[in-house]
Amino acid sequence: MKKRYAVGVDLGGTSIKAALVEQGQGLVRETTRPTYAEEGPQQVITRLGDIVEELIEAAPDHEIAGVGIGSPGAINWERTTVSHPPNFPGWETINLHEALRARFGEKLLVFVENDANVAGLGSAHYGAGKPFDSFIMVTLGTGVGGAIIYRNKIFRGATGAAGEIGHMTIDYEGPFDRSGVAGAIEAYLGQRFLSRHARYRLMTRQDSLLHEMAGPDLRDITPKMLHEAALQGDEGAIEVLAWAGHKLGCVLGAAVNLLDIRKIVVGGGLSAAGDFILEPARKTLKRFVMPGMWDGLAIIQETRGNEVGMLGAAHLVFQYLDEPTHAHDPLS
Amino acid sequence: MKKRYAVGVDLGGTSIKAALVEQGQGLVRETTRPTYAEEGPQQVITRLGDIVEELIEAAPDHEIAGVGIGSPGAINWERTTVSHPPNFPGWETINLHEALRARFGEKLLVFVENDANVAGLGSAHYGAGKPFDSFIMVTLGTGVGGAIIYRNKIFRGATGAAGEIGHMTIDYEGPFDRSGVAGAIEAYLGQRFLSRHARYRLMTRQDSLLHEMAGPDLRDITPKMLHEAALQGDEGAIEVLAWAGHKLGCVLGAAVNLLDIRKIVVGGGLSAAGDFILEPARKTLKRFVMPGMWDGLAIIQETRGNEVGMLGAAHLVFQYLDEPTHAHDPLS
User: What is the ipTM of this complex?
Assistant: First the structure.
């Protein structure tokens, strides 16, 4: 088979990461620029185009079939627009498909998809999800993202928004997440929520290393610090991560019962804490899945880190080329 | 198109209901017998065969393509066996497909599917789910069953067990359901759980009609009585049903966030209470779904009652005849 290439873009609130990807192989070349989202949509679209152009120009001997973009916010069924991405001031509904075609011509395939969904797709074809036809992807970052990979494709639901694990409740009287859902898992594991929990929890633990790492009032505590302290045996930090893992196991149990998809891949920044969070999650998971579905349950750490986003974004292009008329594909 | 017929069986713990079904039309003839599950699997299988034979013999001029069976318990991916149906003593794994083919010959198509799944399929093609390509089915009976209907088919997950909404948690520290899952919706809305809740809740309401209907210690309270009392304006009964509806809304919110399937059809005995339970569920649902998915949310009462089970069971046969090689069909 002829080698196929596509550009995969990970459009984040802080930086735009993009890579040239070879189908079935992985990243060929990678580049990154700050997003400067505060400058508004037109500036970001221009920068997004610039980074794509940079990658295309750096590979004059590669035929590039298209561009896939993983973006926060709501994506339409046709995979052309992004609506209301959090932390992107001034974005209503932006048609990235049109914007890129206007700049690069009608020949270029362009697909936009939710960032957690492309992370799942990337994991399915290049990452920890590769051994599985179907799995649940969870990304633990600023927020908690999710995706359902079913038979190696993104399960998109009725309108393209499926997979919002972060807003599933595990306690109908619990604390509110940013969407106003009580007891949603994001209200425990979202970065700000977890940091705040850690801060107050460790107030009474003067022996914790976090007091050195995050200042005496623990105001600047980050999940990364928790992981570092845990590695040094800090009991308080280990406790916080186990607490987070327990909550994660609860919501994953609910998702497994509903989907009968028993493999879970966990990515995103906090997943770097590995078994400090995943081992407690595994123990809890079993208590929240009905016994008839225990067989084959597994929670696995994503090993390719944030690369899966770019890989999955590029894979949108490959998938379309391989099966342009597949019933699951909204573009057929 | 030539008229097509199949037999749909609803195998319940108390009675076996079966019907001759005409594709696209509905029930032609219906019959029912007690299950006598305590007599063990062989007796039940014989009775199941008898009832199928009765329907076939009563329609000598109809060409019957096959038999579909909705059953409690776990169904295998091939749709041939039932494992451990609750309330069926002595059942390990029983191959109903083989049993019926041995009796009626290899020409007869036989499919077994989970009872909540066939209720969903029946609703999709003959009931309240007909207007929707995709919806979530919930059945409120002895237990709480569920099904995901995606593009007019049963979404089966990785092994065929998807849709277990009843065991999704809404409170990780909540009461345990029969599967040992804390705060599962079945631990609130399952018949015994709801009756017990009503009993204790109404203890202090001496004015409630339930004291007349269910005896002074409220020991024999049933969901049906709650509905009847609610119709007569009984405040206590209305409160109990609203409490149940609130819990239902919580779990449905979690399911909608995960699936992006925004229509929900509610069937099963307790659904007869209609808006006494569904109106509170609708109010709560919105509070547990992220705002980006509010558009098109709806909770609808199943109008064909328990018929949907038989209709959906028969439809397994029609679906196979229409699309024997469809990728979603495990039998292709």
Answer: 0.95
